[in-house]
Design a protein that fits this description.
By secondary structure, the protein is an alpha/beta fold. The protein has a single domain, classed as 3-Layer(aba) Sandwich (Rossmann fold), CATH 3.40.50. It is built from 8 helices and 8 strands. The protein has an 8-stranded mixed sheet with strand order 3-2-1-4-5-6-7-8, sandwiched between helices. It is globular, with a radius of gyration of 20 Å.
């Protein structure tokens, strides 16, 4: 494959939702760097319906045409059975599993007062349950190897006020933060890192929002720029990076951090309130 550096030669990667957009870019970049890739995708639309069985195979063929190793997998990772099947496919085809990129996702857009229970459950299934299910299936394999790299996809939608029309999506993505922290703690003694990725790229999921907001001139929001950063988290050299949340867009990289802060206006106002109205 042209431009291969081989830094991931011998590694095996499972990328969920890798038939299009960001997932496709992740899979192709990991393959470019030498990894064998399981291209997992049911081929569904943004609403999680209308599966297309050709989507995963198309990307696997692209990777093989460039000289890489790849197989298509259409397991539905929105449940434990499908997640286990995807992991088993990697081990059966390539003998091990070193890298997982949890990228599969859908989008059910509705404000909180119009949200249906079905829409909320659909988003939790693919983003939260799917992420945890794949980690659960991959952990025993990685623990036995004493090595693993897991990257979970979060979103700024769960961290700011811009996504009022997608409360189900924002809720599910916030859950992935917690799963990432718990996974990182569980994996640390076994050589398994678990990090979160908040990507900024122009894809079918983000197109409507970005077209409305506008893209600054010269900013390259191609999925390939995000995939370059993702690959960095999947290398052997990134073994000391875990429980970190990275945001990347257009070649820029930043880190999200969460912590308790004293002395803010909120703290002072609540202290004043409790001092005045405390029943003790």
């Amino acid at each position: 494959m042209a431009g291969r550096t081989g830094i991931l030669t011998g590694r095996v990667a499972l990328v969920t939702g890798s038939g299009r957009g960001l997932g496709r870019a992740h899979g192709r970049e990991l393959a470019r760097l030498g990894a064998a890739v399981v291209v997992n995708d049911t081929g569904v639309g943004l609403d999680g319906a209308a599966p297309d069985p050709t989507v995963a195979e198309t990307v696997a063929q692209e990777i093989r045409a460039d000289g890489g190793r790849a197989v298509a997998d259409r397991s539905d990772v929105r449940g434990f059975v499908g997640a286990e099947a995807a992991v088993e496919r990697a081990v059966a085809e390539f003998g091990r599993l070193d890298i997982v990129v949890n990228n599969a996702g859908t989008m059910h857009a509705a404000p909180v007062d119009e949200l249906t229970e079905a829409d909320l459950r659909a988003e939790l299934d693919v983003h939260a349950l799917g992420t945890v299910a794949v980690m659960r299936a991959a952990f025993p394999v990685m623990r036995a190897q004493g090595y693993g790299r897991i990257v979970n996809t979060l979103s700024e939608a769960s961290l700011h006020l811009e996504m009022a029309a997608a409360v189900a999506y924002s809720t599910a993505k916030a859950a992935v933060w917690g799963a990432t922290m718990a996974g990182a703690r569980a994996g640390r003694p076994h050589g398994i890192t678990v990090n979160g990725l908040s990507p900024g790229a122009y894809t079918r999921m983000s197109a409507v929002y970005l077209d409305e907001q506008g893209i600054p001139p010269g900013l390259d929001l191609s999925p390939e720029r995000v995939a370059e950063v993702t690959a960095g988290l999947c290398t052997e050299e990134a073994g000391d990076l875990t429980a970190r949340i990275v945001h990347t867009a257009g070649g820029h990289v930043r880190e999200f951090r969460m912590g308790r802060v004293d002395g803010t206006d909120l703290v002072e106002r609540l202290r004043a309130f409790t001092s005045e109205h405390a029943g003790r």
